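step=predict obj=Glutamate ABC transporter substrate-binding protein n=317
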Amino acid sequence: MLAAAALAGCSAAPGPHAAQAPRSHPAAPAAGHTARAKTQAVGSVPECNPYASSLAPLAGTPQVTTGSWMAHIRKRGHLIAGVDQNTYHFGYLNPLDGQFEGFDIDMVKAVAQAIFGSPGHITYRAISDDQRKTDIQNGSVDIVAHTMTILCSRLKDEDFSSVYFTAHQRVLVLKDSTVTGLDQLGGQKVCATKGSDSAGFIAHYNATSPVAEHPVVVPVTFWTDCLVLLQQRQVAAVSTDDTILEGLQAQDPFTKLVGSNLTDEPYGLAIAKQHPEFVRFVNAVLARMYKDGSWEKSYNHWVSPSYVTPPQPKYAN
């Protein structure tokens, strides 16, 4: 397995489920759910359905067909994956063994397994949120598995797999904070990464109110940078997907998650628009994971030991 350089100064990772309560993440919002999907501007009409925007897999098991992008990857000898390296439980470079691990990493391994017959033929490229779109479009990576939300704006420039996980934006504060939600942070500094949809949501929060102040976004490169700013009290809060915030909370027990779910965040694996056959192939891999129990096994290991129903994928065609 090929890996990027270790994250400097990173402490040993806590075990799966550290500082987490059992929870469930359905592939689509439950009926009556009030969180707003970030597929649209506040108050606008949805442009697409991120839960049914991907190409349907071909019938049968994933097949590496002649002349396909999968065949090109196999000939090259390794799958190139853009991943996170500092989000516990999803994409994390473990400093103890130099290996990438997490729920997103398991998705990449399953794709490599389907192409090569082994999950080890992977070159991981640790990238920031801001690099995800560029690296997919310029061909630096074959696939991005990086807690990436399927957005209508993103679908114009890159393709995604079917939804394999749904997160929700929330707020992380210090334990001694009296803040109970984003609505109490008007005019205050809230940290988010450059290139994340979380930053845009924070900047426009309370946009429907003519009198309420917006929170002030403090942009950084990595979510761990946000944690440092929070610890130094240079920001009042960090706001992004609960999956990421729980990873930060696992690193600092003097923080807490507050407030209700603000949004739905349907995660997809990003793929260049030039390779629709690869999208169908990846969706076939995901469908097989739902059926053979490997998706649930990964979920139980990295996200929550509680029972969860695997996603029920929907497609655009």
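step=describe
Residues 169-263 form a domain with the D-Maltodextrin-Binding Protein; domain 2 fold (CATH 3.40.190.10).
step=end
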